[in-house]
Amino acid sequence: MSKTYTIPKTQKAAVVQKTGGQVQVQDIPVTSAEQLAPGECLVKLSHTGVCHTDLHAALGDWPVKPKSPLIGGHEGIGEIVAIGKGTAPCPVKIGQRVGIKWIAYSCLDCEQCRTGHEQNCLNVKLSGYTVDGTFSQYVVSYVHSVTPIPENLDSAAAASLLCAGVTVYRALKYSETNPGDWVVLPGAGGGLGHLAVQYAKYMGRRVIAIDGGEEKRKLCETLGADAWIDFEKCKDIVAEIKRITGGQGAHAAVVTTASSSGYTQAIDYLRQNGKLMAVGLPADAKLEASIFFTVFKGISILGSYVGNRQDAIEAIDIASTGAVKVHYKLLKLDDIEKVYDDMGKGKIAGRVVLAME
Ligand SMILES: [Zn+2]
Ligand SMILES: [Zn+2]
């Protein structure tokens, strides 16, 4: 017997009425079970993470423009309360707990999808960007794209894995490194960084954590970083990485920072055939790499963009073993205006998770 749910007519949602405008919590209609198309499901959200991308979506400062009006959010966890009539086959069921990630939908039939690059799908729908996202009590999603959440993972603790976790996990997975290899993580004490440290350690990599301040140093060391560099104190980061790695440089760097200098520097501290995994999405920064040394050292510069369904399942699965824990601050949906405000001022260091009620 599957559970039955009473779906209300209205719900609370955080809406950006006009791109560049304020986010406001207001009452809006809930899509009814009858309105769902085949392949769609209605998810009653309990928690959602807040990501820097949500700020870009509200401001509309990326080269790809968001929908308007917009409900942001792409790190949602909730229960499926309805599935569109005529959905067959259906990999999920009513009552199941699922996650909603940045890639809300991929067609599974285009060349990118067929080759496993669902995040680059030509018909992609993006949560909280091209379709309404998870800053609402109910959201319409897609049965083939939602991520099942294992029972032993707490909803609030799982939320941020769906974007930050998947993103850094995939970058590490495709970094062509082996156990014991050195991976540099600039911004290691931040929202993406602290998850990257834990995934990298789970994969048996040696981690050089770069960030600033005592609090971040303690966090990175607690999470298992093998070496720590304080960029506020270190005069020559390249030399320090060379010293730590026995003069050769690191095997890979996963660069999540918004500034271009983090990328430029990586070319210098990577060893021959090193991999630079570019993960951050700054609105207009350019990559300035020495072409000579990129060629001479055989450096690969690879863009790694969130992840596909399998990457999400793997990232969640690893976290469910207890190996990866999100450090987050739990607030309420009603706090979102303040969260956006603080994010705009750069006052939010780790991840923020909102409880829906
Ligand atoms: Zn995100
Ligand atoms: Zn596709």
Automatic annotation (TrEMBL):
Q: Which UniProt keywords apply?
A: Metal-binding, NAD, Oxidoreductase, Zinc
Q: Per the UniProt record, which residue ranges are transmembrane? A: none
Q: Which residues form a coiled coil?
A: none
List the InterPro entries hit by this protein, alphabetically: ADH-like_C (IPR013149), ADH-like_N (IPR013154), ER (IPR020843), GroES-like_sf (IPR011032), NAD(P)-bd_dom_sf (IPR036291)
Q: Name one GO molecular function term.
A: metal ion binding
The chain positions of domain Enoyl reductase (ER) read 21-354
Q: Which Gene3D superfamilies does the entry link to?
A: Medium-chain alcohol dehydrogenases, catalytic domain, NAD(P)-binding Rossmann-like Domain
Per the entry, which co-factors are needed?
A: Zn(2+)
Q: Name one GO cellular component term.
A: cytoplasm
Q: Which domain of life is it from?
A: Eukaryota
Supply the EC number(s): 1.1.1.1
Family matches, as PANTHER family: ALCOHOL DEHYDROGENASE 1-RELATED
Q: Which family does it belong to?
A: Belongs to the zinc-containing alcohol dehydrogenase family.
Protein name (record):
alcohol dehydrogenase
